[in-house]
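A student in our group prepared the protein record below, which I am reviewing. What it holds is a sequence and that sequence's fold in token form. My question to you is simply how this chain folds and whether the tokens agree. Do not assume that whoever made the record got everything right. I have pasted the whole thing underneath without changing anything:
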Amino acid sequence: MNIALMREVSQSISECEITNITRRPIDPQEAGRQHENYAQTLRDLGYKIHMIEADEELPDSTFIEDTAVVLDEFAVITHPGASSRRGETRAVSEALSIYRDLEFIGESGTLDGGDVLRIGKTLYVGKSCRSSAVGIINLRDIVQPRGYEVVGVPVTGCLHLKSAVSLVDHRTLLVNPSWVDPSDIEEMELITVDPSEPYGANSLKVNGGLLYSISYPNTRRKLEARGLDVVAIDISELAKAEGNISCCCIPFAL
């Protein structure tokens, strides 16, 4: 069974953290409609949605990816880099404990799940404004005894590593080389974003296709030209909160 852990959109989403983009007004109702369409798209692809209720005191909480790293054997609950987001992990811990044993990054370092790109048994972790060197070391200490390797990757110009690079199939990366050097990640085939679409490197590989934003049509054509089955949806209102496709769910298999 495939599960997608998601969290409803907070009506306070307009109070979200903004780091690398210009703040614009956000319509919570439209963001909620787009989020529900996202969830329905995953249902159509065969996923069971585990939806956590919204919390009006946590405006960023719909971007659930940052709160946990779910591996095959266990899950790691993060310590988010933005202090306003640290309250998000409680409900996520409760939900994930149904499916996985839990480990915790702890308070000595920070780590956002959006900085963690898994390729096989290697976790590439963005050295970003949200994930600290100590947080990366803490993650390594947790996962290394279970056979995983952790590799730190410099990131510039964007919020998270997965803003700059994502895995689109088992041998191919979608990358913005202005924000991350692909040579810092294992050698794979590369698809580079269209220069007019710098935020187009984020995608979500799911069973049945590649979930992608409709906002990057030129890059989407590159993906489809490689034979990838792209499922494009509108998340434009969520993107005003500096979110992208992979931010809105944590998919895993039972």
